[in-house]
Every structure is written in structure tokens, then in C-alpha cells.
Amino acid sequence: MCDQTFLAIVFGPCDKCFKEKPLRPVYIKSEQLSYCSLCVEMMATEGLHENETLASLKNEAESLKGKLEEERAKLHDVELHQVAERVEALGQFVMKTRRTLKGHGNKVLCMDWCKDKRRIVSSSQDGKVIVWDSFTTNKEHAVTMPCTWVMACAYAPSGCAIACGGLDNKCSVYPLTFDKNENMAAKKKSVAMHTNYLSACSFTNSDMQILTASGDGTCALWDVESGQLLQSFHGHGADVLCLDLAPSETGNTFVSGGCDKKAMVWDMRSGQCIQSFETHDSDINSVRYYPSGDAFASGSDDATCRLYDLRADREVAIYSKESIIFGASSVDFSLSGRLLFAGYNDYTINVWDVLKGSRVSILFGHENRVSTLRVSPDGTAFCSGSWDHTLRV
Amino acid sequence: QDMTEKELLKMELDQLKKEVKNERQMISKTGKELKDYIESMAGEDPLLKGVPEDKNPFKEKGGCTIS
After folding, report:
1. CA of residue A256 relative to chain centroid, distance
2. CB A288 within 8 A of CB A305
3. Region Disordered: which residues (chain B) (predicted)?
4. How would DSSP label each residue in A159-176?
5. Which domains are assigned to chain B?
6. What b/e sequence results for A264-291 when a residue is b if at least 16 CB atoms lie within 10 Å of its CB, and e otherwise?
7. What distance separates the 2 farthest-apart alpha carbons in chain B?
8. How many of the other CB atoms lie within 10 Å of CB of A175?
9. Does the beta-carbon distance from A379 to B47 stay under 8 Å?
10. A90 to A236, A290, A364, B48: CA distances (angstroms)
11. Which end of chain A is more exposed for a tag (fewer CB within 10 A), N or C?
12. What is the DSSP code (8-state) at residue A237?
């Protein structure tokens, strides 16, 4: 004889429709509820419906992506280097390190030039943020952040403040003062709050607003005075690693790159993503607008740098070589946009001819990964920062 | 992020719909504009054409300078 267990029938209000009926136990997300049999039926079919709509949404997304590719392909009538065929080739380049800035106790993670073309702010894994005079190599200011891995730093357009942040999930602004008696850390202002590390920050055209990118997958625009969030930008599927603002003449947009291999162009006022590009094979470490604002370059862990034309809405050039297998951590254009400087994790800096797609020069000198690279505002020099604790100009 | 997969997909879908509608131009046109820009600015690009030693602010200094 088998044992028979009888289901005890509970009579009471259904957890879903609240009617008094015989109830059955139902498990939703590991919580136990009691539904009446009608609601159980409905829920079961809803589940099916849910899956159907999910699948149909996925299909629609795939087909739209296909359509987008098609539309973009229609414009691909020539390659950039074909357009540039008749442009003179560049000669041999001799670029020397003119200054070596030593003083950081650990890996240099980020740097930025001041608009005066001579001062540089740099930040490091040891938590220190230093302002240098690149002509004399003197350190003008130094601040110790309460966190390590200060991954982002930026100079304010006026030259009177710097912003930095990293593992503290915040972006803080420090006004620069020449008064030796004043403690810089005392005047610190916390402007941005993210829920994960700060990967990049930049002032907009004024000292009053800062744009930040974070490991939490979002970018945000903040008002420096009040610390208020002015706009947030959602859309990346993973950590956002870098951002760059469009040159002022071309309007209120910026581009961001992330671990989801996407580069996205955003409208700063509406918070909407205008265009997105997903052709890299790995994390995008650095994005930089082309001087005219009509294009941008990106450097990625897939060892390539790519140029995307915003008006043609597609990638127009890839800068890579079979011999380059290490990721590009940082990219920047020369003043005219003819040269693209890219710092790599194999300790070198490659200089690319933007139009022809060929490498013009390799620069050696750093003894560890190049983590950050920026051309000075007037284009007379560029500075690279590295995990070897130094910066070179 | 705490949105359901469905909501995430919907967002992606809306975004794609918007992007498909973007205006685009031919590379022959935009590429040419990039090239023209470079050519117009190339004369001013110090890293491209080099800087005469006496004007180079980063030149290694010889003797002492008292400022």
C-alpha cells in the first residue's frame, strides 16, 4: 500500500487577486505566495507570453541592427586612404623625449594639460595628484587623495582648479592656490557621486560643469558649485572607461567608450545617445575627438585604433599591425589631425598617419605600459604617462 | 542594473530605431572633408613640421637661466 499524502487545501484571500478562494502555493523568485487556481493559470500563460515577447524583441533588435549595417554600408563607397591617395606621404619623424617628470611613487594613470600649454596635472595609483610645470619640471602642487588608483584627472579651462577621482567613486574638484600656507585638501569639493569607480572626468567649456564616466556603466554631467546632477547618460552595457568632449565649435556632444566594446556619442542636453559604434573586439580604453569634431578615434584592448566618421556614421579606418598585439590604452591627435599618437601596453607609442592608415613612427622610452597620452593645447608637444611612474614630454 | 531583460531589450530596440533614422553622408564626401581639414591645418601643426630649436619651449636648456 502506498502512503497517500493529501494536499491540505487552504482557503483564503489570493495574493494576486485578493478574492477568497481555495489557494495553491506558488513560488516566485524564491518567495512563497498563495494564488487561487485562476491566477495560477493566468500566471502560467503570462510566463509563456513573456518568453514570446522576449524572443520577438530579440529578433526585432537583430533585424534592426542588420538594417543599420545595411544603411551604413551604402555609404561606404571609398576607403579613407583612397581619398587621401594624392596627399603627400609623411617623411621620417624624429621625436625625442624632452622632459621626464619624476616624482610619482607608483603607476601614472592619467594626465591632462592646462590651457596655458605648459602645466600638466597627473594622477597615480599611489593616490597622489601632482601639478607640474613642464618647462621647468618643477612640481607646483601636490595633493594626496584619500583613495588609491586615481584613474582620472582633468585641468579646469581657467587653469585655477583640477578635478580627480578613482576608486573613491567620486570626482572631487580642488581649487589651485599659490598660497603656501593653504592646505589644498581643505578646499576640496566633492562634485560627483557614482556607484562604482570613476574612470574619466573632464570639465566642459567652463569651470562650472564636469562630465564623468564610471565603472557603474553611466556617464554624468554635474554642476560644480552645487554638486547637483544635471544629466545622466545610460546606455552602456558595462563599465565606461573613457570620454571626450566635442571641440566647442561643433556643439554639445561627447563620445564615450566602454568595456561593452561600444563607443557612443551623446547629446549633452537631452541625455540621449545619438550614435553608437560597435566594431572593436574588446574594451575601448580611450576615445578622442578629431580636431574638427567630425570624427573620433578610439584605442582598444584589441590592439587596434579606429577612426569613426560621425557624418558617415561608420568606422572609416583601422590602425593596426600584426606585430602589435598589446592593447592601446590612450590616443590623441596632433593639432591638424594628420597624426594619431597611441600609447600601448607594450611600453611603446605608435604614431599613425591618419589619412593613409600607416604607421609613421614608434617611440620607445617608457619602461612599462603607457597609460595616458595627451597632445598639448597648441600642439607643440605631447605628454605620455606610464606605469613606470614617470611622465615624458 | 536592475531592469528586467525585457526592459533592457526594449531600450536597445528604441535606441536602434532612432539610430536607423540618422542622416548619413557618403564617405567620399566626409573623407574628403577630413582630408581638406588636415591639409588646411597641417601648416600650423608643430608636431608635423617640426619646430625650430630657438622657438621650442621644450628644448634642453644649455647654461643657467635666471628668471
Report:
1. 5
2. no
3. 45-67
4. SSEEEEESTTSEEEEEE-
5. 5-55 (4.10.260.10)
6. bbbebeebebbbbbebbeebbbbbbbbb
7. 70
8. 15
9. yes
10. 38, 19, 20, 8
11. N
12. S
Q: Order of strands, edge to edge, in the sheet holding A100-102?
A: A100-102, A390-392, A382-386, A370-375
CA-based nearest residue to A263, from A232, A246, A286: A286
Question: Which chain B residues are closer than 8 Å to A61 by Cβ?
Answer: 9, 12-13, 16
pLDDT single digits (tens) A91-105: 666 778 888 888 888
Sorted by sequence, the CB contacts under 8 Å of residue B35 that are 6+ apart come out as: A83, A84, A87, A355
Residues 6+ apart with CB under 8 A from A90: A338, A339, A353, A360, B48
Which residues belong to CATH 2.130.10.10 in chain A? 100-392
Min Cα–Cα distance to chain A from B27, Å: 6
Query: Coil, helix or strand for A68?
Result: helix
- Residue A17, C-beta contacts closer than 8 angstroms, at least 6 positions apart: A36, A38, A39
Question: How far apart, in Å, are the Cα atoms of A345 and each of A78, A366, A373, B43?
Answer: 32, 10, 12, 32
- Which chain B residue lies closest to A294 (C-alpha atoms)? B34
Residue A292 and residue B32: Cβ atoms within 8 Å?
Answer: no
Q: DSSP characters for A292-313?
A: TSSEEEEEETTS-EEEEETTTT
Q: Tell me which DSSP letter residue B58 carries.
A: T
- Enter the DSSP assignment of A115: T
**Residue B64 has what pLDDT?**
45
ipTM of the complex: 0.74
Given a contact cutoff of 8 angstroms between Cβ atoms, the answer to whether A39 and A16 are in contact is yes
Range with lowest mean pLDDT among A263-267, A288-292, A374-378, B15-19: B15-19
The full length of chain A comes to 393
Residue of B nearest to A237 (CA): B1
For the beta carbon of residue B29, count every other beta carbon within 10 angstroms.
Answer: 15
Residue A87, judged by CB atoms within 10 A of its CB (0-12, 13-18, 19+), counts as middle
Q: Is the pLDDT of residue A74 over 80?
A: no
Q: Are A221 and A211 in contact (CB under 8 A)?
A: yes
For residue B1, the model assigns a pLDDT of 47
| pLDDT tens figures, A244-297 | 998 876 578 899 999 999 899 998 888 888 888 888 999 999 999 988 888 899
